[in-house]
Design goal:
By secondary structure, the chain is an alpha/beta fold. It contains 10 helices and 13 strands. One of its GO terms (molecular function) is ATP binding.
Length: 308
């Protein structure tokens, strides 16, 4: 599910300079937003996922068409305004990436209430619902908690990958979702201390599991890899040593492969390994391309999880 999607535009130029007209290459466009990217990556990995997306205006229609033409099933949800666009610019002289993220339309509680009936009709007990990406402007952080828990209560397996106030609210609620993923800096902010070693991240993830936040908690450690903790163990999976083209979409690719592994009944160490392999594959591609399935499979043996 993506409440705050965007049409992601990517271009490049020779050099970023202020006050000048900067001539860019023809832009590449892709539907973007956490849940959309997860659905796209699952599709790239050879499976199927339904993208429940809040859409509005011409940009929303463009996103829906692009997803459908890519073979992705779309559940359109009504957004209270036009869907946003984001811009990613690569500076050719340095390889640096500049990302410009714009706000989406402002929501009120009634807007969220309006999308809940079609979503609840589409998602049944035993399904996996991935809540990924940022909350739209206007919604309180607790709105994501309420949405997640309403589906947990119906027997839906809920995976959450969010940030900021929404992440803080999810952790504070401690209401037992299936899987929660976060980045290392987010985990450090939640814990109020640095997490310099993988073991430190594992301790933090274990504490959240013990508090009832989720059945499993994953903390990503960037180029080092990721850790996963459950009530029965803690594991570390290394990231693959690959050339980095763009880190955009790495986290969404991680969630896609991990969710796909969960849907196939994989044990938690395999879920972690699959996620790390997909994230590693994603950084080798341009900003909006996500993980390449052949690269993913080639990297998988090198991202095997081990106990920590």
């Amino acid at each position: 599910m993506t409440l705050n999607p965007a049409l992601d535009l990517e271009t490049s130029l020779a050099e970023m300079r202020p006050r000048e007209k900067l001539r860019c290459t023809p832009p590449r466009s892709d539907p973007g937003g956490g849940g959309i990217n997860v659905a796209r990556a699952i599709h790239a990995l050879g499976s199927t996922a339904r993208a429940a997306v809040a859409l509005g205006g011409p940009t929303g229609a463009t996103i829906a068409t692009a997803l459908q033409e890519a073979g992705i099933d779309v559940l359109p949800l009504a957004a209270p305004g036009p869907t946003r666009q984001n811009l990613s610019v690569i500076e050719a002289s340095t390889g640096e990436q500049f990302r410009f993220i714009f706000p989406g339309p402002t929501w009120i509680p009634a807007d969220l209430a309006a999308v809940e009936p079609p979503l609840s009709k589409a998602v049944v007990a035993g399904d996996i619902l991935v809540l990924s990406g940022s909350l739209p402007p206007g919604l309180a952080a607790e709105a994501l908690v309420d949405l997640a828990m309403s589906h947990v209560a119906r027997g839906v397996r809920v995976v959450v990958d969010t940030s900021g106030a929404a992440l803080v609210a999810m952790v504070a609620a401690a209401r037992g979702m299936n899987l929660l993923r976060m980045d290392g800096p987010e985990a450090e902010e939640l814990c109020g201390r640095p997490l310099p070693r993988a073991a430190d991240s594992a301790d933090a993830a274990q504490a959240m599991v013990n508090d009832g936040v989720a059945e499993a908690v994953i903390i990503a450690r960037g180029k080092d890899g990721s850790v996963l903790a459950t009530a029965n163990g803690r594991w570390f999976a290394p990231a693959a040593d690959v050339p980095v083209v763009s880190v955009t979409g790495a986290g969404d690719s991680f969630v896609a492969a991990a969710t796909l592994a969960m849907s196939r009944g994989a044990a938690w160490p395999e879920v972690l390994s699959c996620g790390c392999s997909a994230a590693s594959a994603a950084v080798t591609t341009p900003a909006t391309a996500l993980c390449d399935p052949e690269v993913y499979l080639a990297l998988l043996p090198g991202t095997r999880a081990r106990r920590i």
